[in-house]
Amino acid sequence: MEKITILEGRQSQVYEKNNTPAEFDITCETTSLSGSVSQRACVFCGSRVVLYPVADALHIVHGPIGCAAYTWDIRGAVSSGPELHRLSFSTDLKEMDVIYGGEKKLHKSLTELIEQYQPKAAFIYSTCIIGIIGDDIDAVCKKVSQEQGIPVLPVHSEGFKGTKKDGYKAACDALMKLVGTGPTEGIGKYSINILGEFNLAGEAWIIKSYYEQMGIQVVSTMTGDGRVDDIRRSHGASLNIVQCSGSMVKLAKMMEEKYGIPYLRVSYFGIEDMSKALYDVARHFSDNQAIMEAAKELVSREVSELYPQLQKYRSALAGKKAAIYVGGAFKAFSLIKALASVDMKVVLAGSQTGNKDDYEGLKEMCDEGTVIVDDSNPVELSKFVLEKEADLLIGGVKERPIAYKLGIGFCDHNHERKIPLAGFEGMLNFIREVYNSVMSPVWKFAPRKGGVS
Which positions fall inside the Nitrogenase/oxidoreductase component domain (predicted)? Predict the structure, then answer.
């Protein structure tokens, strides 16, 4: 096989851990190299994945129809009530709209949709073409808000102006305009907001249940199964818990600066991190010892039920190799620990949006020989999977074809999935899915490649 090489200009974003005591220095938080076919999404998509689960808000994409089609129903975010978020609206700009401007069309679309669906708020997403033609969506949003009496929030997410991470920031800016505009009556001292949890397959309900069993009041989840009124009163909570740090740390910092609400970074994936997420909150409310006692009882009960079931899979999975490529590096930490619980080895750990601290943490967690990569592409991922002889690739929908073409198992740990992987029950679902994929008899019909020459 012809040797697969890394593109010139990409070498500084790839690191292989070895015994050499050289200083660890990986390039990250940069725009993608032209021609590398990055697995990242655009700024607009980043904002959509964060705001999409707000279920009682109107979401309208100001731009060509393709942008709305690309991001329709892109999260497996479920709602316990309204499902307005699952309808994808677009101003569907055509050539003449681009020439003469789309502000009138946006105003007309907003007015008709608000009158028909009676949403609690409306998010207006600005796409690439809007950034080029210069439509003043702020002015349109302000006018419609005054006319209709609901918050109409511009989301400045022109796809060309940065990375997916910039889309997260645009979403946080929009959410912050809602925070602090509602009443805080009924919010107690032991209360939290759950940030960066998007209720994929009902995961927010699992996490919320854990905290409520501990005696903690959950004021809002942002944005899984989200409600506009809950977001508006979220400034009354005592603590913010941030799960997806890449998407929501900015909002947590803004709320800390404006309202004095501290925040904790947590993960809900795997036994160790899920337990720590509960204990960290209990320690924050240390003046109420009953919360810590409830946390200990909950963890003890859940782990005692879960651990024996995991042992059924350990003997089969021990020694198998996994490659991880996910959106945020913080998730990779949890996945490494989760795989270690069944004695699987991680040979590749990468992310789309990691920072220096994230990759330094991955370096400390990973074994010798593990490849650490930022903003990878299909060719690189194929190269590392073959060279490291991985048995499994964990990623999202864009990584699935890579795994199957190379004849290895795949586990979807991105936002399209329909099975909850968070919490203690999610850990069992995850390991079961890993087992079913890696140990499937189908792979005997697709002999593994022997690496690259």
Answer: 42-438
